[in-house]
């Protein structure tokens, strides 16, 4: 009998934590920009596994051969980005849950941009509190985010449409009460924030 490798086991547990949480929540009450709901089941589910995300580096995944407007050799990306940015944005890694700069960041206006190319990705009023440990958005700037089936076969990856930088994953149907019933689960290290919404001008 063959046992699954540790990375596959951790990835499976991570997927379960992100896709089944809705079954343990009461129906949320939605307020624009943020969602408030009972936190006890959420805390039990997510805080019991806060360290799994950091182990989910995806260096074994197949490379993305899509052509994006911004194209740079990997060496140039390494010179531009910090080691952690490169690991997440270019090697499709995942930062530790509950540690990101923008996890508990809730501005009333502004725009979140790609950490690799500064393309506008999300507006401040797209962000909401999901309790998952990573920044969560219910919508994106039109055509700014590309969705692709993840090589793990169970999730959908989200990438910057301008440079192909790995942002995180999108989950649907979790009943957070937002207008699109979606959650873009994004690594803080993959994005920057500008208090001025240049995208809308």
From TrEMBL:
Endpoints of the signal sequence: none
Outline the extent of the MsrB domain: 74-196
Cofactor needs: Zn(2+)
InterPro entries membership: Met_Sox_Rdtase_MsrB (IPR028427), Met_Sox_Rdtase_MsrB_dom (IPR002579), Mss4-like_sf (IPR011057)
Q: Name one GO molecular function term.
A: metal ion binding
- Matches recorded under Pfam families: SelR (PF01641)
Q: What is its EC number?
A: 1.8.4.12
Q: Which GO terms describe its biological process?
A: protein repair; response to oxidative stress
UniProt entry keywords in alphabetical sequence: Metal-binding, Oxidoreductase, Zinc
UniProt remark on cofactor binding: Binds 1 zinc ion per subunit.
Record's superkingdom? Eukaryota
The record lists the catalysed reaction(s) as:
L-methionyl-[protein] + [thioredoxin]-disulfide + H2O = L-methionyl-(R)-S-oxide-[protein] + [thioredoxin]-dithiol
Respond yes or no to whether keyword Metal-binding is given for this record: yes
Asked whether the UniProt record includes Cytoplasm among its keywords, one would answer: no
- Family recorded in the similarity comment: Belongs to the MsrB Met sulfoxide reductase family.
User: What protein name does the entry list?
Assistant: Peptide-methionine (R)-S-oxide reductase
Q: Which organism is it from?
A: Ophiobolus disseminans
